[in-house]
Amino acid sequence: MVASNRRRKMLRGATLVTAALMLCFFFCTLLRQPIRENQIDTPIKDIEKACIDIHGYVLGAIRSNATIYLYRTPSLQFDFVLKTVRTAVPYQVSQVNGSKEFKFPCLIHGQYVLAVPSDAYQNRSVGSPLPHETINENFSVNVVFQGGDYEYLVGAFIIFTRENN
Fold first, then answer.
1. Among 80, 73, 154, CA closest to 120
2. How far is residue 103's CA from residue 85's CA, in Å, rounded to a whole number?
3. Eight-state DSSP code of residue 122
């Protein structure tokens, strides 16, 4: 009986070792697979086609180095846009330079809102942040509206891929 138990333990141990070796072989085989083009190895020209840098300006007497916030939004209705600005986490954050210009790098197609807090302006001379409307071979950028309230000045825009235009 002792020999039988000993044999069972050895058989279980051998089975576990075999299973572990099979798993190691399986994962090593996966690691040796070549990376497909649409995985990590995307060529730079495809990245340039996938996104666009947005440049813009702020109307009004904005303070230099004021913070400007960018949000993605599922709706461009004015009330929804202001609610998004008040409650959502910004998609990106940038600074307004001395020429009242800003930049947000590599944005994909979609609906966006630019927002500047009203206390970022001097002498109550406020104005909305707006992107430059652009058309290139891959994208078009269109301003939908500008406006705001006592707390934020906003500019809403859409980035279309040229296929969706």
1. 154
2. 19
3. S
Q: What are the boundaries of each domain within the chain?
A: 1-33, 44-161
Residues in the chain, total: 165
Token representation of residue 57? 């300006």
Contact 114, 70 (CB under 8 A): yes
| DSSP assigned state of 126 | -
Residue linked to tokens 């949000």: 71
Quick one: CA dihedral 96, 100, 106, 109, positive or negative? positive
Identify the sign of the CA torsion 150, 64, 58, 107. negative
pLDDT (tens digit per residue) in 91-137: 999 999 999 999 999 999 999 999 999 999 998 789 999 999 989 88
pTM of the model: 0.70
Strands 110-117 and 101-107: unpaired
Half-sphere exposure (CA, 13 Å, Cβ side) for 39?
Answer: 4
Strand extents, DSSP E, 18-150: 52-58, 67-72, 92-95, 101-107, 110-117, 129-131, 134-135, 139-148
**Computed from CA positions of residues 55, 61, 67, 70, in that sequence, does the dihedral angle turn out positive or negative?**
negative
Widest CA span of the chain, in angstroms?
A: 95
C-beta atoms surrounding 69 within 10 Å: 21
- 133 and 148 Cβ atoms separated by less than 8 Å: no
